[in-house]
Amino acid sequence: MNVFEKDVQSKRNDAIDSGMGFIFSFVFFALIFTIGTVIKLVG
Predict the structure, then answer these.
(1) Which parts pass through the membrane (predicted)?
(2) Is 8 part of any domain?
(3) Which residues, other chains included, contact 10 with Cβ-Cβ below 8 Å and sequence gap of 6+?
């Protein structure tokens, strides 16, 4: 066992972190898409 396995910084579940990252990126790209669609419809 190496020293990093003994002294972990975060004991949270990795699935929660990866899920939050997925949701954040999905919402970001959906927002960009929505802004682009609104600009296309208005212009």
Answers:
(1) 20-42
(2) no
(3) 17
Q: Residue 34 falls within a domain, yes or no?
A: yes
- Tell me if 22 is assigned to some domain: yes
Phi, psi of 18 (to 5 degrees): -70, -35
pLDDT for 32? 98
- The number of beta carbons lying within 10 Å of the beta carbon of residue 14 is 8
Structure-token pair, residue 36: 């682009």
Q: Which two tokens stand for residue 23?
A: 């949701």
The answer to the question of residue 37 being in a domain is yes
Q: Extract the tokens encoding 21.
A: 């990252």
Domain span at residue 21 reads: 17-42
